[in-house]
Specification:
single chain, alpha/beta, Nucleotidyltransferase, domain 5, Dna Ligase, domain 1, 3 domains, nine-stranded mixed β-sheet, six-stranded mixed β-sheet, 11 helices
Length: 397
């Protein structure tokens, strides 16, 4: 049933603060399914967000205020709602990092695991997992340990005596292994989101790393969802998540996105950024002449190779020499560039990394995010996947 109070529908916001665009979804919950009843995508003021890092917080707040206001004015006649006082924010950017951590507990196998025992084990592990790995995280990220802050620590898997289970309560097991996803970022990044939440008097808000949220909400065949690479190419960054054998291996974000291609076009053709962006979009939408397409493709090919090399390094850092899943799912507006699909086909992946089969390119559209219904019928582009997955995971947790 609908989440209601005072005979009005309760709502929450899902907010994706991208480098190029701000995406806001007004959501409610109906029988454990998210319903998006309002949606706006607004262009950011150029320079207010760089590589998903908020530079001009006042500009971002103004955009959110505008977007929420437009949504409320559009839905008020159709829905009798309580104004949203909770929100989920997506975080991304090169300085936002995440890894999977395994923690084992040994117990008497002849006793069935009770609910209270399991909660005690989870709470004890969760309270200390970030601090325990913080020094290692700081070393790997080259960020001072004192500047790092916890974004989220999520229980994503349970093993009893080496076997994955959905529920440990009621199981007799001598060994319990908890799998956590730990995400971290510079404190200044999270402070910006806190300021935004305070500005809108939100009573509560959550933050999730966007590639993590996407990887946890895929509505795919179970074999594909448990073994795949998700690649979200936005304006400022490329976000990567690797799922292998039912487990999230980790997430990696690197600072090459659509703006990199745009700037490359601008430099090579000696035109301004806005004109280069217009050309890139026309090229992606096949609205150029054949001659123009060939010229632009030749220019973008060089940038695409650099992008692919960066993806190779990101995957290597995540999975080292282990076997990689070969099903790739691409989202984000910049994944529409024809050169992305071309370089995924032509790059020597099997020579560089441990793929049992050559990578297969797939698009990931919003309709492949589970437990979300878009009542607006407007959340339908590759760039809208993150905002939908954030809403889905927020309710799931």
């Amino acid at each position: 049933m609908l989440s209601m109070s005072n005979n009005k529908i309760n709502t929450f916001l899902s907010i994706d603060i991208g480098t190029e665009n701000l995406k806001i979804a007004l959501c409610t919950v109906h029988f454990n399914t998210v319903e998006i009843i309002g949606f706006k995508k607004l262009p950011q003021v150029r320079g207010s967000v760089r590589s998903s890092f908020i530079i001009d917080i006042a500009s971002v707040i103004e955009k959110i205020d505008l977007g929420v206001g437009l949504i409320i004015s559009e839905v008020k006649d159709e829905y009798d709602i309580n104004l949203p006082n909770t929100a989920v924010f997506g975080v991304a950017g090169e300085s936002v990092l995440g890894k999977t951590v395994h923690i084992e507990f040994v117990r008497k196998k002849n006793n069935v695991i009770s609910e209270s025992e399991f909660l005690s084990i989870v709470n004890a592990a969760k309270d200390g997992v970030f601090e325990s790995v913080k020094p290692n995280l700081a070393e790997n990220s080259l960020i001072d340990e004192h500047l790092l802050a916890e974004v989220t620590t999520e229980l994503i898997g349970i093993k009893c005596d080496g076997q994955y289970v959905k529920e440990a309560v009621g199981v007799s097991a001598g060994n319990i292994e908890l799998v956590f996803y730990v995400a971290y970022a510079p404190q200044i990044y999270l402070d910006s989101l806190s300021k935004i939440a305070n500005k809108f008097s939100l009573s509560a808000f959550k933050t999730f790393v966007e590639p993590f949220a996407i990887s946890q909400t895929l509505d795919l065949d179970v074999n594909y969802a448990n073994n795949c690479v998700v690649v979200d190419i936005g304006g400022g960054t490329t976000d990567v998540a690797v799922m292998s054998n039912k487990e999230l291996v980790g997430t990696k974000i690197y600072g090459i996105g659509g703006n990199t291609f745009t700037q490359y076009i601008a430099d090579k053709l000696n035109i301004n950024f806005d004109k280069a962006e217009e050309l890139k979009l026309q090229y992606s939408n096949q609205k150029l002449t054949h001659t123009e397409e060939v010229e632009l493709s030749r220019i973008i090919d060089k940038a695409a190779y650099v992008w692919a090399r960066s993806l190779e390094l990101a995957l290597l850092k995540l999975i080292d020499t282990k076997e990689l899943p070969y099903n790739f799912y691409f989202c984000g507006g910049s994944s529409l560039l024809p050169n992305i699909q071309q370089i995924m086909i032509s790059y020597p992946w099997q020579q560089k990394l441990n793929f049992v089969k050559y990578p297969k390119f797939n698009y990931l559209f919003p309709n492949k995010i589970k437990d979300v219904v878009d009542k607006t019928r407007t959340v339908n582009s590759l760039s809208d996947v993150a905002v939908m997955s954030l809403a889905s995971y927020f309710v799931k947790k």
